[in-house]
Specification:
It is a single chain. This protein is of the alpha/beta class and about 250 residues long. Helix content is about 35%, strand content about 15%. Helix 1 links the parallel strand 3 and strand 4. The chain has 8 helices and 8 strands. The chain is globular and about 40 Å long. The protein has an 8-stranded mixed beta sheet, sandwiched between helices.
């Protein structure tokens, strides 16, 4: 299990979060709720990268999904131990030591607790959007038939082609937001996704892959918005994901 240097790079975005922190079955979550009426039986699970739900970028993205009519629950599956914000762009930070403490045995149970609690509250359908580290759990939740629709941006920790073949067999709608510079999901893996999930196409009824030139791993959540191509990629990935959720959820 490994990550890359781009996983620790990024820029904090500016804005004032509008959601609130709630504790669900002992798990800290950031919850963004639409101000207008919305379907109470549907929730988007926001599965964060290694910076967790404390990074303002994640909170602002959750708020943006809520503005589009979805209740969003961002889950702190790191139990308060996401990467410290002062580690951003710090090449000396021991990322692999941190990752070793946050394997599936440690991080999946909090996620399952939150999902079970939401189901008990009447939620019947879930979508999931995962960034980097969170992309792994989008795939796992699809394999377990927990979610109805899936979205990932520059996913990490996937086993290619095995996970792509399993996803094809799951027959769950999936959108992948990709870019040219990505050690975790490089162009070779993107091409395999098109072959395995799209039958050679980037767009089918159940599969869509967006590609944002000039971007690198992390662009959809931690990109430098002062760069026009990164800003366009971040906004484009969000728009494509919202449209995909509106179609399938």
């Amino acid at each position: 299990m490994s990550l890359c240097s781009h996983c620790i790079a990024g820029v904090r975005h500016e804005g004032i979060p509008e959601g609130k922190v709630e504790v669900i079955e002992g798990v800290k979550c950031y919850v963004a709720t639409p101000t207008a009426d919305y379907p109470k039986d549907k929730v988007i699970l926001y599965l964060p990268d290694i910076w967790g739900i404390e990074l303002v970028n994640a909170q602002l993205l959750a708020d943006d999904f809520a503005r589009n009519g979805f209740k969003v629950v961002a889950v702190d599956y790191f139990d308060g131990d996401a990467l410290p914000l002062d580690a951003m762009n710090d090449s000396t930070f021991d990322l692999m030591a941190w990752l070793g403490k946050h394997n599936a045995d440690a991080t999946r149970p909090p996620l399952d607790k939150v999902i079970a609690a939401l189901e008990a509250q009447g939620v019947k359908e879930f979508a999931a959007t995962g960034y980097c580290f969170g992309g792994r759990y989008v795939f796992d939740l699809a394999f377990d038939r927990v979610i109805k629709v899936a979205a990932v941006a520059h996913p990490s920790l996937l086993k290619v082609p095995v996970d792509l073949e399993k996803f094809r067999d799951a027959k769950i709608p999936l959108i992948i937001n990709s870019c040219p510079t990505d050690e975790q999901f490089p162009p070779t893996s993107q091409a395999l996704a098109d072959t395995i999930l799209g039958g050679g196409s980037t767009s089918t009824e159940l599969y869509k892959r967006e590609y944002f030139d000039g971007c690198e791993h992390g662009f959809a959540v931690r990109g430098d918005l002062s760069k026009p191509e990164i800003k366009a990629g971040k906004e484009g990935a969000f728009k494509a994901t919202v449209e995909f959720f509106l179609k399938h959820l």
